[in-house]
Specification:
Largest sheet: none
Shape: elongated
Structural class: mainly alpha
Number of domains: 1
Radius of gyration: 21 Å
Number of strands: 0
Strand content: under 5%
Distance between the termini: 58 Å
Amino acid sequence: MEMMGNVKLLINGISLIILFAVTLIVANTIAMSARERVTEMAVMRTLGFGQGHILGFILAEAIVMSLLAGVLGVALAKFAIIPAMVAGLNKTSVSAWLVNFRVSPATLAMAFVVSVGIGILAGFVPAIRSSRLKIVDGLRQVV
């Protein structure tokens, strides 16, 4: 085990890199969604919605998407992916390691919280940019 090095540090580092990449992907998706609706937001601002309302709408969309993704991901992991993985690997030489393989509710809850956190973090920049958009600039932009 001494020769293997710090495997835990390596796995944690790789996990953080993956989380960073996923955050960038989600931020790009939310930014594209906000850019496609610039004219709609300018019309809403014209009708009297304030910057706080627009900010809230974009952030709420990001949070709802991340909540749904978190619920779907945790449910699939708990009821489909992990049982299928255990069943598939049960016929191999690793079956001795899978006897007590369980994913704790705390781990699933942490995965859900991370999913929602990524959605909130990724939604801030597009929400702020959309809320600061001038009405004239939004109405001039053709998509």
